[in-house]
Amino acid sequence: MKASSPAGTDLYTLLISGLLFPLHERLKKHNSVTVRKEMELSQWWDEKRLEELRLSRLRQLLAHAQAHVPYYRRLFAEVGFKAEGFNSLADLALLPLLDKSRIRSNLEALKSEKARHLARFNTGGSGGNPLIFYIGRERISHDVGAKWRATRWWGVDIGDPEIVVWGSPIELGAQDGVRALRDRLLRTRLLSAFEMSEQKLDLFLDALRATRPKMLFGYPSALAHIARHAEAKELRMDNLGIRVAFVTSERLYDEQRQKISKVFGCPVANGYGGRDAGFIAHECPHGGMHITAEDIIVEILDPQGVPLLPGEAGEIVITHLATQDFPFIRYRTGDIGVLDNKSCSCGRGLPLLKEIQGRSTDFLVAQNGTVMHGLALIYILRDLPQVRNFKIIQESLDFTRVLVVSADRLNSKFVEKIESGFKARLGQGVQIAVEEVAEIPAEKSGKFRYVISKVPATHV
Predict the structure, then answer these.
(1) Which among 206, 247, 269, 318 is least surrounded, fewest beta carbons within 10 Å?
(2) Are residues 168 and 120 in the same domain?
(3) Taking a C-beta distance cutoff of 8 angstroms, is the pair 430, 393 a contact?
(4) What's the pTM value of the predicted model, to 2 decimals?
């Protein structure tokens, strides 16, 4: 089946997606165009053919790790694992799990001896402690190709007007001249999810009406918040020609989906993944949450590390097959999910995630009414090397508590740095109480929340 451009694609988008973006990728030595085209064929393969591809690629990854990655060379020897004896995907269970602490302790040893031109990345830090890792060109190409394929499921191509509502300083701080030019050419406009005062929200709505994007992309909480503001202002936003709202990085709640869809007059496509784990799964127009099976092997494990059957909830553990330069093999995401053993009515052979019970990050409200993503304060704490763990509790608009587990005793200079950073976001009149604690217990549910806001929902 030959892939073609989505219906209704204009000439400018055809120029960008068919010529300028491929040239951009070729200059960066990425093969994302080839990856996307191959994926648009393999998505229709049956289960047996897909499994053969995955097994072949997994064998290559394991053989490379054994021969060229010091960490895995040592690990395989310790557990008596030989890549050449690998026979099935189930044999992955013979290997220990990889978690963030292991990566932090073995950062250099996880680099392939043959790796060149590695890019340093880190997670957003919503868990309070960002993970530093490395990505090679193969991994970047595959992640770009996978996302590109998914947007085309919804009739959106690279070059179509897009508005991104995001909160990471990695993107927000990278708006140099070259990046700004690239975004203009690709017709992508980036809006900050960190500040959502009424004035900012008015500007967001103005930007949407002026841009008339084919696609929205951002946190579900942020897009739902913008939608509620438009509703309160009685501004019609369902006539802008938006084809889809892609949401990611947080759990998508039914109320958010309904609100976004109603206000913007478009379907909502849920996405699941991360900088560390890659582009794991995305929702198609038929409702199936398709795993990027060509690149990602998903295991669902119980607390003892035992694989669970489809329909049973457990931790999502992934192996990314395009990570020879810095392997992610049996990587613990920390998220909870459920596999599905059904197929999607769209006809794609890609396996499905039935449910994702991922973490969510709360909003916080400043004294002046500015609504911001919880990451706005998390980033302040995560950049302090003494901080081992923390919890932010917004008791009211005037009082916020910060529980800190520190490697060293808190001193006045350290406390003042936290207070000044928080007051810059929440308001100079807000009382910030920094409390040093030995440990921070989990919630009654067993989950851990780094940001809790007790400000009434009417403020948000």
Answers:
(1) 206
(2) no
(3) no
(4) 0.79
